[in-house]
Design brief:
It is built from 23 helices and no strands. It has 491 residues and is mostly helical. The longest helix is centred in the C-terminal third of the chain and has 36 residues, at 329-364.
């Protein structure tokens, strides 16, 4: 650490969160408690966990960098708007059906019950691929920040973060994850607000002069109504694409876990509706990017640092934290970034372990004791930790593109088929043969859109909706309802 005080603050925050999350999580005796908290958690804790999982270190590091870099502006706010609207759609379409389904333990069993078993199994593997991609990128970002601070190297930094995430996930499963996410959400929110205020107070430029300079640089542009399909941050790409990818995440086990952790279907809907409001944190972090641009306009970076930032744009906020903040204050910022990183990783681990135990281990060992299943759950957490670490190290070769772009671009290769799958399952449409044809069409559309340089935010809604149309056209007969799903209405 750049200062012992910074290290002490980071360790104190991590240790305190670990203890508090474990204390709130309580004792877990079976898989239901480990993976869904037994439906005992208050909606406000679940809502905070939803947004804490999504506000990753990518948000804290890459969003300010996207504003700071040459040509950067506030148009990312359009993506934030789409993501918030997407949470409202999840609340309306999936919260009650998920909560009231009986005899179903994963989102993929729900899909299998609404369509057929083979479709559910196929969607499970798609969900795992999506989880690995997202987790690898977000782990890479957090490791990059730690490397700037400690110079340990990316592999060592990744191991440190993974071990802490593994500890939190293994203590009491989703119950600990949600409670630690709640604590971290509060800490991250205060950290984002403090970051904006502190950087703003460090500015020597008068406010009106700073505002005029930002306007002259084009950094205050908020909405882009261009119809050019190659522009990734137009209102059409940002809002429509983000709604689509939000609905796609509704098909994952992470959404299922949080819905089933609530005390009622109404609470589940309330949790997702309020999570849309909590996206205001992203807007605060956009403000940090503006403040950094003004600060370094008045205090130019040296040539060596400029070269580092040109090579890896996401380093700009960590550089400010390390070199321009007093000891102690920088420790608080570092802790907030780590809070964002670990809240994402522990949730991803819990999701992957849940699917592994229910869809793989239970079939291999169908009559094991609950103690054996809990042990398998914790061992699968360790396995997926290694997978996420390997993926992060692989993605490190692509950091020049910017981690914010990687965060959205890579998952969009699979978001479309997943979006199409949950729409089909929600309305009970299609069987595996027609689903597979639709999947092939969706993947082909994504490949064609990519080759035409169409903005990746369009890939999900266009390929997903076309997949729905293909499946509907091939199989118009409504499949027989499975008896295990009790509720499918979206009141």
């Amino acid at each position: 650490m750049s200062h012992l005080l910074d290290g002490a603050i980071v360790l104190a925050v991590m240790a305190g969160t670990t203890w508090l999350g474990h204390w709130l999580g309580g004792n877990i005796r079976d898989r239901s408690g480990f993976f869904s908290a037994g439906g005992t958690l208050p909606w406000w804790a679940v809502s905070a966990s939803i947004i804490a999982t999504l506000v990753s270190s990518v948000t804290f590091v890459s969003v300010p960098a996207a504003v700071f870099r040459d040509g950067g502006n506030l148009t990312y706010a359009q993506v934030v708007l789409g993501l918030a609207l997407g949470k409202l759609f999840i609340a309306a379409l999936l919260a009650r059906p998920y909560y009231e389904s009986r005899g179903v333990r994963t989102a993929y069993e729900y899909i299998g019950a609404r369509m057929d078993m083979r479709t559910g199994e196929f969607s499970m593997w798609l969900g795992l691929v999506l989880n690995v991609i997202n987790s690898g990128i977000k782990l890479l970002t957090a490791s990059l920040v730690l490397d700037v601070i400690t110079a340990w190297g990316l592999p060592a930094c990744g191991v440190f973060i993974v071990l802490l995430s593994l500890l939190w996930s293994a203590l009491a499963g989703v119950r600990t994850v949600i409670w630690t996410d709640f604590v971290l959400f509060v800490f991250m929110g205060l950290g984002a607000l403090f970051a904006l205020l502190f950087v703003s107070l460090r500015l020597d430029t008068p406010p009106m002069d700073a505002w005029r300079w930002l306007d002259a640089q084009g950094k205050l542009v908020l909405f882009d109504f261009s119809t050019d399909p190659t522009r990734r941050y137009s209102i059409w790409a940002g809002v429509l694409g983000s709604i689509g990818l939000s609905l796609a995440t509704g098909a994952t086990q992470a959404t299922w876990q949080r819905v089933r952790a609530c005390r009622s279907a109404a609470d589940a809907r309330r949790a997702y509706n309020w999570s849309a409001v909590f996206y205001v944190m992203h807007l605060v972090i956009l403000g940090v990017g503006l403040a950094l641009a003004v600060y370094y306009m008045a205090h130019p970076l040296d040539a060596e640092t400029l070269a580092d930032v040109a090579r890896e744009p996401d380093r700009i906020f960590p550089i400010f934290i390390v070199h321009d903040l007093p000891p102690g204050v920088s420790g608080l910022f570092i802790a907030a970034i780590f809070a964002a990183a670990i809240s994402t990783q522990d949730s991803a681990l819990a999701e992957a372990a849940d699917v592994t135990v229910h869809h793989v281990y239970e079939r291999l060992v169908p009559h094991a004791t609950e103690r054996a299943y809990l042990l398998a759950s914790r061992l699968s957490l360790a396995f997926w930790s290694l997978v996420f670490l390997a993926t992060a190290l692989f993605f490190s070769r692509f950091t020049a593109e910017g981690l914010l772009d990687l965060t959205f671009k890579l998952p969009n290769y699979v978001y479309g088929p997943i979006f199409g799958t949950i729409v089909l399952a929600r309305f009970g449409l299609g069987r595996f043969p027609s689903f597979l044809a639709g999947f092939v069409v969706a993947c082909s559309v994504v490949a064609w859109l990519s080759s035409q340089s169409v903005a990746y935010f369009f890939w999900c809604p266009l390929s997903g909706l076309l997949m729905v149309a293909v499946v509907w056209g091939l199989d118009r007969r409504r499949p027989e309802m499975s008896g295990v799903v009790a509720a499918t209405r979206s009141d």
